[in-house]
Amino acid sequence: MDGALVVAALIVSVLLLMALMSILKTTFKTAFLIAVVVFATQILTGIGPGQILQQILRWFGGIGEWLSTWGNRAKPSTDLPTPRQTLDWLWSALLMSSPYSHFR
């Protein structure tokens, strides 16, 4: 009984170690690829890593700003007494979140 438990524990340990090594290998490959792209961009165009990071942060800031403004536009007002006004609000919220809302 103890022998089977030890063998099972060894098998689980080896599988976990292999999974960890795979994750580390993928992480290092990705980090190396990012470093090569940033270095090549700096050499070829003169754009440094700080400028690249600022642009990425600007993109993420734009996504956050879009999400917050979309959330504010789609909220109903507190004084919607009639079902007609509620349906109007729902319709406008659906139109504002559609991919064709920029054509209005």
Structural features, described:
- This protein has 3 helices and no strands.
- The mean pLDDT is 80.
- The N and C termini lie far apart (73 Å).
- The chain is an all-alpha fold.
- 80% of the residues lie in helices and 0% in strands.
- The protein is flat.
Key structural traits:
3 helices; 104 residues; mainly alpha; flat; single chain
Topology (SSEs and partners):
Blueprint lengths: L1 H44 L3 H25 L9 H14 L8
How many β-strand stretches?
Answer: 0
Find the structural class using helix and strand composition. Answer: mainly alpha
Query: Percent range for helical residues?
Result: over 70%
List the total number of helices: 3
How would the global form be characterised?
flat
Largest sheet: none
Strand content: under 5%
Gist of the model:
The chain is built from three helices and no strands.
